[in-house]
Design brief:
The protein is an alpha+beta fold and about 290 residues long. The chain folds into 3 domains: about 70 residues, 2-Layer Sandwich (Uridine Diphospho-n-acetylenolpyruvylglucosamine Reductase, domain 2); about 130 residues, Uridine Diphospho-n-acetylenolpyruvylglucosamine Reductase, domain 3; about 80 residues, Uridine Diphospho-n-acetylenolpyruvylglucosamine Reductase, domain 1. About 20% of the residues lie in helices and about 25% in strands. Strand 9 and strand 10 form a beta hairpin. Helix 2 packs antiparallel against helix 4. The structure holds flavin-adenine dinucleotide.
Length: about 290
Amino acid sequence: MTALLSRTGARVERLPLARYTTLGVGGEAEVWTVQDHAQLLEAMEAPYRILGGGSNLVIADQGVPERVIRLAGQFAATDLTPDPHLSTSDQIVTGWVGGGVPLPGLLRKLQRLGLGNLEGTVGIPAQLGGAIWMNAGTRYGETFDGLHTLEIVTPEGARQVTPDELPWTYRSSGIPRNHIVTRARLNLRPSTPETVLDRMQAADVARKGQPKNRTPGCAFKNPTLEDGQKVSAGLLIDRAGLKGMQAGQARIAPEHGNFIVNLGGATATDVHALLQLIRERVPVPLELEYELWP
Ligand SMILES: Cc1cc2nc3c(=O)[nH]c(=O)nc-3n(C[C@H](O)[C@H](O)[C@H](O)COP(=O)(O)OP(=O)(O)OC[C@H]3O[C@@H](n4cnc5c(N)ncnc54)[C@H](O)[C@@H]3O)c2cc1C
C-alpha cells in the first residue's frame, strides 16, 4: 500500500511489523509515523500501540488490529546541550532527547562527550522511550539513573513529570501502558570519555555469551524458588536438555538457553511452539520476559 498522509500530516501505511523488531517476526498493521504532537494526538484518536525499538516483542504472524505508532521527527531528535540554569560542575541536565532515539547511538554520543549515568544500559537495543517505559538496565545501571524530566503524552495531551513523581522500580517505570514517553531531559555526570568507555566495556563483558542471531532478548524472567532462592531461567532450560531445540526456523540458542533466535524466516508460531515446550519441560513456573502482540 502506498503511504497516505493523515489530516495533520502523519504518514500512514500498512507495513509488516517484522522489519521493526529485533526478532524479525510479525505480520502487518497500519503504521502511523508521527513527527510532532499534533500528529501524535491524531494517531491516538483510535485504538493504538506504541512501538519502540521492537527489542522486547514477539508480534503475531497476523499482525495487530490497532494502529501502531512510531516516533519520528522531533521525537527522534537529540539535543544534548547542557541547560545553563540546571547544570552544575557535577551534574549536566541536557535539552530534550526524543523517545524514538535509538539508545545505542545515544550512548556512543554520551561516551564521546564524557557524560556518565546511562553507561550501564550499554548493549540494550531499545529506543530511549521504550527503555524508559521498562526502566531497562543491567546489573551495572538502569535507565532511571540518567533522567531529569520526562514528557508523557496521552490522548488528553502532554505533561511533564520528574522521576520522583513516578512509582518506578526494577525494570518498570510505573508509567501506564500506552502512555507514550515522547522525550526526556537527561541527568548526567560529567566524566571523561575514557572513564565512560571503561564502564561501558565492563558492562558489555556480561554479553559475551549471548547469541548473535536475531532475538527479542531473554525469553523468561529468572524465577524465585520456593526456598526464596533466585535461579537462572537459562540454567533451568539447559538442565531440561532444551538448548538447540528447533521449531521451524526458531531455535533455543545453543549458547544460552534463555534466548530464542530466528535462524531466518522464523514465524511467531515457531517461537510460541518453543515457549510452550520450555514451559512443559522446565519443572518451575516461568514468567515471560518479552511482550506478546496482540
Ligand atoms: C539482544 C538483546 C539484549 C537485551 N538486553 C537487555 C538488558 O540487558 N536489559 C533489559 O532491561 N532489557 C534488555 N533487552 C530487552 C529490551 O531491549 C528492553 O526491554 C527495552 O526496554 C525494550 O525497548 P524498545 O524500545 O525496544 O521497546 P519495544 O520492544 O518496541 O516495546 C516494548 C514495550 O515498550 C512500550 N514502548 C516502546 N516505546 C515506548 C514509548 N516511547 N513510550 C511508552 N511505551 C513505549 C511498547 O508499547 C511495549 O509495551 C534486550 C533485548 C535484546 C534483543
